[in-house]
Amino acid sequence: MGDPGAEAEHQRARTAPGLAIALLSGFSFGLAGPFAAALLATGWSPLAVVLGRLGGGALLLVVPLAVMAARGRYLRRRHLRPVVVYGVVPLAGAQICYFSAVGHLSVGVALLIEYTAPVLLLAWTWARTAARPRPATLVGAALAIAGLGLVLDVGRGADVDVVGVLWGLGAAVCLAAYFRLSADAGEVDGPPALVLTAGGALVGSAVVVLVGLVGLLPLEANTAPIDLAGWTAPWWVGVVLVAALSTALAYLTGIAAVARLGSRLASFVGLSEVLFAVLGAWWLVSQEPTATQVAGGVLVVAAIALIRWAEPPGD
């Protein structure tokens, strides 16, 4: 039997850097919305922003992926399915839905709708298994719905963009796959984080191009300069930032955080993305939230944290 004290010390040694990595991931992910909003404001379509994000991220990861392959670590047959699913759902699916929502709603509102994913999963699990959730979980779900109402400002008769809300809910559905697939990367037989991210970005880029070619969604971009915090920058700056910072770095650190902390704790820390997104949108693209929306956002984040705490780790 191992020494419990040594095991606890080993766990603490993994947790401290894991928390730092998870916060870095939340920061990187949170800025994706503001960078995308800057491009969308110049006439880019959401699909084009997703292609810039995933395609650029894939290009940035080609070199380290080649180095990994040269050292004998490459994509094995058993890794193919999780890589394809990761590319189609958490990458292409979630990004298309989220950036489409950002085209209709503010960054903070779109992200908060996406983060209602645990509530949707709770309802789906309840309907599928007939297992009644714990009381604290039901309270968390009710608080999340109430907070979302405040975020959308429906109490004051605000004009809610239904299309944007539907896109946000689509992003919430896709979000559920992210933590599960990221956790698989930490297993012995799971694909390495770099393979999962780079391979998924390539698959996601192919899906985006296919969607654009068949005409399901417009694929439109231009070279007009963008505005970031009052700074007029070339269009490619926005693409590089969203590809390098909010894709390559964000997903690699996110997977690394889940591997060190576990999906449960990492999902708690991942809520920091909402804070970084709201602050980033306020600073970079002048999307200042109202006091009601701030209160609603706090309520949603607290509710999701309550649900994560109440449900068993395996749920």
Automatic annotation (TrEMBL):
<feature type="transmembrane region" description="Helical">
    <location>
        <begin position="21"/>
        <end position="44"/>
    </location>
</feature>
<feature type="transmembrane region" description="Helical">
    <location>
        <begin position="107"/>
        <end position="126"/>
    </location>
</feature>
<comment type="similarity">
    <text>Belongs to the EamA transporter family.</text>
</comment>
<dbReference type="InterPro" id="IPR000620">
    <property type="entry name" value="EamA_dom"/>
</dbReference>
<dbReference type="Pfam" id="PF00892">
    <property type="entry name" value="EamA"/>
</dbReference>
<feature type="transmembrane region" description="Helical">
    <location>
        <begin position="235"/>
        <end position="258"/>
    </location>
</feature>
<keyword id="KW-0812">Transmembrane</keyword>
<protein>
    <submittedName>
        <fullName>Threonine/homoserine efflux transporter RhtA</fullName>
    </submittedName>
</protein>
<feature type="transmembrane region" description="Helical">
    <location>
        <begin position="265"/>
        <end position="285"/>
    </location>
</feature>
<feature type="transmembrane region" description="Helical">
    <location>
        <begin position="138"/>
        <end position="156"/>
    </location>
</feature>
<keyword id="KW-1133">Transmembrane helix</keyword>
<feature type="transmembrane region" description="Helical">
    <location>
        <begin position="83"/>
        <end position="101"/>
    </location>
</feature>
<feature type="domain" description="EamA">
    <location>
        <begin position="17"/>
        <end position="152"/>
    </location>
</feature>
<feature type="transmembrane region" description="Helical">
    <location>
        <begin position="162"/>
        <end position="181"/>
    </location>
</feature>
<keyword id="KW-0472">Membrane</keyword>
<feature type="domain" description="EamA">
    <location>
        <begin position="164"/>
        <end position="308"/>
    </location>
</feature>
<feature type="transmembrane region" description="Helical">
    <location>
        <begin position="291"/>
        <end position="310"/>
    </location>
</feature>
<dbReference type="GO" id="GO:0016020">
    <property type="term" value="C:membrane"/>
</dbReference>
<dbReference type="InterPro" id="IPR037185">
    <property type="entry name" value="EmrE-like"/>
</dbReference>
<feature type="transmembrane region" description="Helical">
    <location>
        <begin position="193"/>
        <end position="215"/>
    </location>
</feature>
<feature type="transmembrane region" description="Helical">
    <location>
        <begin position="50"/>
        <end position="71"/>
    </location>
</feature>
